[in-house]
Task: structure prediction
Amino acid sequence: MVREFEYQGETFRVTAHGIHGHEEIFIVHIEEDGVEGAEISIDRMTEENDTSAPIEDILVMLCDKLIPQSEIKVQNPAAPFAWRAGNVVFEVHDGLQNRDHD
Result:
């Protein structure tokens, strides 16, 4: 899955692959000018984490580490996690990719 989301008024892009609870997850901060900025990742199969947690919770946890670590000046500290509208090309899957064709 490659998808954008917002958290604390900032835009991030997540790339995740694997099965639920055992994904490799990479997030990157998208700066105001659209340039990719700081990034962080987790391998849920090998790194300590709650493997039953929804991916959204893991994304928030990663952002909560990345923001102070990279000194990102957030636009709205009270803004919650929200997926951005857009086309999801691939979802997290079990090894088989099915892509809808127009």
Remarks:
- The mean pLDDT is 89.
